[in-house]
Amino acid sequence: MKRTGVLAALPEGPRERLMELGREVSFPAGTRIFEEGQRADRFWIIRTGTVNLDVHVPGRQAAVVETIGADGLVGWSWLCPPHQWHLGAEAARPVDAWEFDAAEVLALCERDPALDHALLTYVVEVIGHRLRSSRTRLLDLYGPYRSGSAE
Amino acid sequence: MTAVPLPYRVVANRPESTDTRTIELRPAGEALPAFAPGQFAMLYAFGAGEIPVSVAGLRDGTLTHTIRGVGAVSRALCAVRPGTQVGVRGPFGTGWDLPSAAGRDLLVVAGGIGLAPLRPLVQAAASAHNRLNVLIGARTPEDLLYRDELDGWGRPYCGVTVDRAGPGWTGHVGVVTTLLDRAAFTPHETTAFICGPEIMIRATARELLHRGVPAQHIRVSLERNMHCATGHCGHCQLGPLLLCRDGPVVGYDHAEPLLAVREL
Q1: Taking CA A135 as the corner, what is the angle to CA A133 and CA A137, rounded to the nearest 5 degrees?
Q2: Which domains, ranges and CATH numbers included, belong to chain B?
């Protein structure tokens, strides 16, 4: 299968320099990777498995709002203030991922404008895509009165 | 095709979800000509009225239709009991034209009840040699159609995603286009078949174009207010097209500019 996600988005040189900072990590299914409100000081690129992003709903089970699969970016709150997670994340299936320390990556970006630009462009694309997806789902497209019935 | 409804007997009526049912019909006398996947019938619930419904299955001379009860006629059709009769006209419209995709990768993308017109296509494609990817989006796990059949669909990939997960759902959550990264297809050698709400169709087609699937190889099923189904009344007009006759399946090279026009 072709390479997708951040690994496809970054040019070869910046990609290699970024990957030098990555650490291989694994999360068994059900592991909480981070919680809402905690300090966002790292991010992950999924190699295999899936991660659910969820919102805490007081008095109820957390609501899953999005699933991220292989090559997907988990976490962008490390990039901008207040550097806190807006959502929680849990391994839905066993996950192998590369983990990146945000401070290390930001320091590298200071020294490497090409990586800085490519990574920022990619993260903005991810945020834009998730925003469009959320807006689409707000329309409740599959609801009963969106069926196009001629009645 | 016939202008007069022919009587068909209801042989089965089973629930798919809280508001959606699948009915099976057999001719009570004379049978209509064979339908192709993607075409539709006009179903007449006696005493209630007539609506267009795509065929959701075509095996053994049985017409299968999946209907969501959203109005008086569709609710009447959802309530038909085995042994009773309905009127059927058809077949109408253009089909998916699976034979023209011979040798190409197949990508089937369905949203909500849009899975129903794609079901006979998936069944027909199962015996072909193409790579078949089936991507399905539903509102909730409870709204998912044909749950008992999905395991056998898609070779190499069949994925399901929901907009809202409930307790116990361990599958994917998100819009259906997020499943594209998991499908195995070579874009310029792929024919895509898309059915669902038009915003979902546009979002999916746009993503496929971006990935390199040619517009003429993206086929979408469109829906307008069909009444006569014979291209005379004009209710289903979409620009230069009368969708009951020139659709519902249209190449995206024709559909894209029309779907961008406001009020069309």
Answers
A1: 70
A2: 6-92 (2.40.30.10), 98-259 (3.40.50.80)
